[in-house]
UniProtKB/TrEMBL annotation:
Protein name (database record): Molecular chaperone
Taxonomic path: Bacteria, Candidatus Falkowiibacteriota
Chain ranges of the SHSP domain: 32-144
InterPro entries named among the record's database cross-references: A-crystallin/Hsp20_dom (IPR002068), HSP20-like_chaperone (IPR008978), Small_HSP (IPR031107)
Record-linked PANTHER family: HEAT-SHOCK PROTEIN 20 FAMILY MEMBER
Annotated source species: Candidatus Falkowbacteria bacterium HGW-Falkowbacteria-2
A Pfam family this chain is assigned to: HSP20
SUPFAM superfamilies, alphabetized: HSP20-like chaperones
Length: 150
């Protein structure tokens, strides 16, 4: 058993797996080695598809690239700055501009060739059909008749 150095910022019960979870779930830019604009996303499923939604308000859909390789979805693009205000006159500057990149492992095997993407009201919705082997299968139980019963 190895010793774990106590850290007052992490509290009691600190576990290295907890830190990995924090980094993987909440800090995707740190995990990927990129510090910049990283769009947040929602991922959910229905019976036949994995659906990913992300806010890309103010970004030209023509400047967004989406790819799926080995069940990893990648979204990348660029947000342009259209303001003529010089940076030294800002009181706050919180809107992120520039290149962005987000990749996420999809939770099941998918058919990336049949994926579709639609943007409406600043929301990009990507629908990726599940692969046939990943869809749930219902198996009906057959009742056998015992011929030896009298």
């Amino acid at each position: 058993m190895s010793l774990i150095k106590w850290n007052p910022f992490l509290g009691e019960g600190y576990n290295i797996d907890d830190m990995d979870k924090l980094v993987n779930e909440y800090l995707p830019a740190v995990r990927s080695g990129q510090f910049g604009f990283t769009p947040a996303l929602d991922m959910y499923e229905d019976q036949d598809n994995i659906i990913v939604e992300t806010q890309l308000a103010g970004i030209d859909p023509e400047k967004v690239s989406i790819s799926i390789d080995n069940n990893v979805l990648c979204i990348k693009g660029e947000s342009e700055r259209h303001s003529e205000v010089e940076e030294k006159n800002y009181y706050r500057k919180e809107i992120r501009r520039g290149s962005f990149y987000r990749s996420v492992q999809l939770p099941t095997k998918v058919d990336g060739d049949s994926a579709t993407a639609v943007t409406e009201d600043g929301i990009l919705k990507i629908t990726v059909p599940k692969a046939a082997e990943a869809k749930p299968k219902n198996i009906k139980i057959q009742i056998g008749k015992n011929k030896d019963k009298k």
